[in-house]
């Protein structure tokens, strides 16, 4: 196992009672469903990371964030360990585009009571620890 713990930022984008999920490919968690997000870079704020990753991955522009919580994610098979910081934002305009086709197969707006499976480990861990329905209320 890699001896370093990485920090990931997961961005839960809310619109009309749904959240945006993408089908991951080409990396750990391939063919699981995840929110937009990525690695927190040196000297970058969580909010800056969230804005950058959402724009890079979907072409959507998001502005304000609410901190939701964090997960401790150990990918045993891949030998990776992440702490993932979850933030919530709303996006009322624009359609998500697959801007990184080597990393994401598709984007889809998903109802919380009908999420696609399997979920990416950090999202699965988050949903087991926190109630997203309360935050989106």
UniProtKB/TrEMBL annotation:
It holds the Pfam family NUDIX. CDD domains: NUDIX_MTH2_Nudt15. Keywords: Hydrolase. GO terms for cellular component: cytosol. One of its GO terms (molecular function) is 8-oxo-7,8-dihydrodeoxyguanosine triphosphate pyrophosphatase activity. Gene3D superfamilies: Nucleoside Triphosphate Pyrophosphohydrolase (3.90.79.10). GO terms for biological process: dGTP catabolic process. SUPFAM superfamilies: Nudix (SSF55811). Residues 4-136 form the Nudix hydrolase domain. It comes from the Bacteria. Its cofactor is Mg(2+). InterPro entries: Nudix_hydrolase, NUDIX_hydrolase-like_dom_sf, NUDIX_hydrolase_CS, NUDIX_hydrolase_dom. Belongs to the Nudix hydrolase family. This is NUDIX hydrolase. It comes from Vibrio brasiliensis LMG 20546. The lineage of its organism: Bacteria, Pseudomonadati, Pseudomonadota, Gammaproteobacteria, Vibrionales.
